[in-house]
Amino acid sequence: MKSCILCQSSESSTVFNENGIPIVECKFCGHVYSSFEQAEHYEGYWDGEDESYDLEWWDKAHRGIYKDFIRTYLKAPQGKLLDVGCGLGFFVKAVLESTSWEAHGYEISTRAVDFAKKENKLVTVHAGLVQDSGLPTNSFDVITLWDVIEHIPKPHFLLTYLFTLLGPGGVLFLQTPNFPIQLAKAKLKVTLRGMKPDVHYLEAKDHVNNYKMKTLAELGKQCGFTKPEYKVLMPILSVAGSKSKLAVYAKLGYYFLTKILFNLSFGLINWNNTLFLTLRKPL
């Protein structure tokens, strides 16, 4: 991208170079984005030719985080939820199986939706852009985007549309990598091992927008949302590139430490690997 999505400034400085792709920070508002020009609508992790999926990752490793979300945010006895970018449908499945909520999903990849329908037996998951869905306005209580917002070059269009789908007081939930922490980890890896051509340190081609607490909340504000609130949820119980149980235990230990620090600082210090933000549509 050539300019900042939050303030439209084209003045930036490089904070990391991932094998020839600069990742830059806006000099005016601090938003971070990749210089890689990604298509507005692409299938991301699902656009390969391989028909197999790492179900250990997409299913088993995510069960804890989905359970934590449901326990934290779906306290009402019933409601209506929309998961945007639902992938293989495991989150929609978790909501349907463990609550009395109505859950729907939209996913741009037809391959992923085929899996959700055939393997997960989901009839409320649909292929295509949610913006073209024709869903009625003010019809959802909660809308979720799990690891989606960082992939979208121009997120204002999507979030403004989702704003219309939420009922008054409805909740938008965004999960995305916590960029300052991810940047520190990437720099440490390069310092210790050098830049490796086959390592996606910050996913520069896929993560075209990278968020901090301040900039993610600002994006929501610009789209009409209010009351930004961060929490620290369970991590995905898997470590990329490793099958070690010790690595998973280390990840859990880091999660507990960051959650304690987050709570003791009243949410001011967030060293967790991931940002979990809720925003509300005004009443």
UniProtKB/TrEMBL annotation:
<dbReference type="InterPro" id="IPR029063">
    <property type="entry name" value="SAM-dependent_MTases_sf"/>
</dbReference>
<dbReference type="Pfam" id="PF13489">
    <property type="entry name" value="Methyltransf_23"/>
</dbReference>
<protein>
    <submittedName>
        <fullName>Methyltransferase domain-containing protein</fullName>
    </submittedName>
</protein>
<keyword id="KW-0808">Transferase</keyword>
<dbReference type="GO" id="GO:0032259">
    <property type="term" value="P:methylation"/>
</dbReference>
<keyword id="KW-0489">Methyltransferase</keyword>
<dbReference type="GO" id="GO:0008168">
    <property type="term" value="F:methyltransferase activity"/>
</dbReference>
